[in-house]
Design goal:
The complex is a heterodimer of chains A (309) and B (317).
Chain A lengths: L3 E12 L2 E13 L4 E5 L6 H8 L6 E9 L2 E2 L5 H7 L4 E4 L3 H4 L6 H10 L6 H14 L16 H12 L6 E5 L7 H12 L4 E6 L2 H7 L2 E6 L2 E7 H6 L4 H8 L2 E2 L2 E2 L49 H4 L1
Parallel strand pairs in A: 3-8, 3-9, 6-7, 7-8
Antiparallel strand pairs in A: 1-2, 1-4, 4-5, 9-10, 11-12
Helix pairs in contact in A: 4-5, 4-6, 5-6, 6-7
Chain B lengths: L1 H27 L3 H9 L5 H11 L5 H13 L13 H36 L4 H15 L2 H15 L17 H35 L2 H8 L4 H29 L3 H7 L4 H11 L2 H29 L1 H4 L2
The chains are: A alpha/beta (309), B mainly alpha (317).
The complex binds adenosine-5'-triphosphate, iron/sulfur cluster and magnesium ion.
Iron/sulfur cluster binds next to loops of chain A.
């Protein structure tokens, strides 16, 4: 059994213009201690799918199944889910400045994570906070400082210290380095890599995937289009969208052929394969029928071209 | 922090000085006879006008008068009422307690109702609860104070005489607590209801903004119970604009709650002001105006101090 088994996850928002299907059937597994990288363009449903697992998208309809250590997260009573959040699954968000409360010291925010889950004294919680800050490379004397007194990279370290405060089995990092500059990015990734727990890292940066991931899921328009081990993905990308992503990686100075066109509207997704309006190699079948996950079990992708391979 | 506070206090003193100067110029600039006539009122006999000219020294150069005026102000001497021949400072000290009790009592009530209602509204937007509160807020905002006051007096006297509530002048709670309460409860509620409506709306809007912030999601993600998310994380941040409004309101109201005091015959600063305007009692008007300005300045300084306690970004800037 995997640590986290998600299958058929769907997340729908009721909007004035009709139902918006942000996530349309996502399935993946995360093994204990392993890192899953989720990559895709902006709006492909990466954040919504992981946040929905923890009940963090207010107003959304969430369907499907998500077994965490054998327990069903979808539809779990709010109070039980709350006991898992922060204690067994930690989260790190994109923008550490807006994600930390501006009016509480970083120590207090880390200590709070401990206090809401453990029956410990305030002093004990604060000493956990100091310990965790040291672990992420922030001197414990800064425990009473406020978020605005730290640099961007330091703030993200604080977020990581908070996420790991209770030794969770899984940490979900949603674009943890997007708001940071390149040198700091490497340090934060190195820190995340050292955590040892299972990790889901969401990014639209294939460089992050190449550095961090054991397994990779490529998402497009609310669905996975390709899943593979990291080496397989980079050596043998199968889905035309994945190839487009890899082609648009900067090689030296020039950026090679970015994918043309824009991501589709999720209010009325394209018929058939949702990538077909932008796909350079589409066949007549593509706009008509939606491709299921095809190909080998350890490297499936959702493309009709698999049928002829 | 201290530098900031001192800067604010100096600024407050400058504002007060400007107010005093403006008031002085407004009333004392011009030929001595005209000024004396203006102070005495159009119907006063010529002897009175002459007497005022003498006692106030209106014949002296304007600048000498100005220095004297400021000196008197600093010593707390606001002159003497033309009508009652009582020192203005005495009149103000007599009227102040009623206004102070009215404003502070009502402030507690309207903050509880307003902030509480705002939070209830914002935590379930568009729910029945929210809509009901919105209707109440509209009613509270559109209901004129005097209508509400008269309605309350009518109810208290004719429909529920058993409550013992009645309109009347302020009585110190240190003399008679029962009488104090029976005259204050209605003005408290009346003022608080009207004010609370504004605060529900303000708190609701501010809460809706903060509850959408990233750090609220962070709090939920680390397993903070929803109650704490609302109050400790959401309300804490949402309170800033509410505190500003609170300071402005309390400062303004301390200068005299004209309508509420009049409806209930409370004999506070507001009523003193009305009376002196009606009688053309200029020394009292001047005194009350400067007092009102002083309260507003003081309230603003207190708001800034409160800010720096509430928000570390201000305190540590
Ligand atoms: N509360 C909401 N109400 C309506 N639509 C929403 C809501 N939250 C997200 N969406 C929509 O869901 C879709 C997926 O959003 P999501 O944030 O998961 O994308 P993402 O892959 O994380 O993108 P990014 O790289 O920009 O973070 C988007 O089209 C977004 O507009
Ligand atoms: S199914 Fe067709 S349109 Fe979709 S990616 Fe494959 S070739 Fe392109
Ligand atoms: Mg996202």
């Amino acid at each position: 059994m995997s640590l986290l088994e998600v299958s058929g996850l769907r997340v729908t928002f009721a909007t004035p213009d009709g139902d918006l299907q942000a996530v349309r059937g996502v399935s993946f597994e995360v093994e204990a201690g392993q890192t899953l990288g989720v990559v895709g363009e902006s709006g492909s449903g990466k954040s919504v799918s992981v946040q929905a697992l923890l009940g963090l998208v207010p107003g959304a309809r969430v369907e499907g199944s998500a077994l965490f250590d054998g327990e069903q997260l979808i539809g779990m009573p709010a109070e039980r889910l709350r006991r898992i959040r922060g204690a067994r699954i930690g989260m790190v968000f994109q923008d550490p400045l807006s994600s930390l409360h501006p009016m509480y010291s970083v120590g207090r925010q880390i200590a709070e994570a401990v206090l809401v889950h453990r029956k410990v004294s305030k002093d004990q919680a604060w000493s956990v906070a100091r310990e965790r800050l040291e672990q992420v490379g922030i001197p414990a004397v800064r425990v009473r400082d406020y978020p605005h007194q730290f640099s961007g990279g330091m703030r993200q370290r604080v977020m990581i210290a908070m996420a790991m405060a209770l030794d969770p089995e899984l940490i979900i990092a949603d674009e943890p380095t997007t708001a940071l500059d390149a040198t700091v990015r490497a340090q934060i990734l190195e820190l995340l890599g050292r955590l040892g727990c299972a990790l889901i890292i969401i990014t639209h940066d294939l460089g992050v995937i190449a550095d961090m991931a054991d397994e990779v899921m490529v998402m497009y328009a609310g669905k996975p289009v390709e899943k593979a081990g990291r080496r397989d993905l980079f050596r043998d990308p199968r889905h035309p969208y994945t190839r487009g992503l890899l082609n648009s990686l900067p090689h030296g100075k020039e950026r090679l052929q970015p994918i043309t066109g824009r991501p589709p509207s999720l209010l009325s997704p394209p018929s058939g394969c949702s990538f077909h309006p932008r796909c350079p190699v589409r066949i007549p079948r593509c706009p008509i029928e939606e491709p299921p996950m095809l190909g080998p079990d350890d490297h499936p992708d959702a493309c009709w071209l698999e049928v002829g391979r | 922090m201290w530098r900031f506070l001192i800067r604010r206090i100096v600024f407050g003193v400058v504002v007060l000085w400007l107010v005093a100067t403006t008031v002085f110029l407004l009333f004392f600039a011009g030929p001595a006879d005209n000024v004396a006539r203006r102070l005495a009122g159009p119907r006063a006999p010529i002897e009175v006008v002459e007497q005022i000219k003498d006692t106030l020294g209106l014949d002296r150069p304007l600048f000498t008068q100005y220095l004297g005026f400021l000196g008197d102000l600093l010593r707390g001497d606001l002159g003497t009422s033309f009508i009652s021949q009582t020192p203005v400072s005495t009149l103000i000290l007599q009227s102040l307690p009623g206004t102070l009790w009215l404003v502070f009592g009502a402030a507690v009530l309207w903050m509880l109702m307003g902030v509480g209602g705002g939070v209830l509204s914002a935590t379930k937007p568009r729910s029945l609860r929210d809509r009901t509160l919105t209707v109440l807020v509209l009613a509270g905002i559109s209901l004129p104070t005097f209508v509400l006051g008269i309605l309350m007096i009518y109810l208290a006297l004719s429909v529920f005489p058993g409550t013992g509530l009645q309109p009347g002048p302020y009585i110190s709670p240190f003399i008679d607590v029962g009488a104090f309460l029976s005259t204050m409860v209605m003005p408290w509620i009346c003022l608080a209801v009207v004010q609370a409506a504004v605060y529900v709306r303000l708190t609701r809007g501010s809460m809706l903004d903060t509850m959408g912030e990233d750090y609220i999601r962070t709090a939920r993600a680390k397993g903070v119970p929803e109650r704490s998310v609302t109050y400790r994380h959401g309300l804490r941040a949402a309170l800033t604009p509410v505190i500003t409004q609170f300071g402005v309101d309390v400062g303004t109201l301390l200068g005299g709650v004209v309508v509420t005091e009049s409806v209930f015959g409370l004999q506070g600063i507001g009523q003193l002001m009305i009376r002196s305007v009606r009688d053309g009692d200029l020394p009292v008007i001047i005194g009350a105006a400067i007092l009102a300005a002083a309260f507003i300045v003081l309230a603003n300084i207190l708001v800034d101090v409160a800010y720096s306690f509430l928000d570390p970004r201000v305190r540590l800037a």
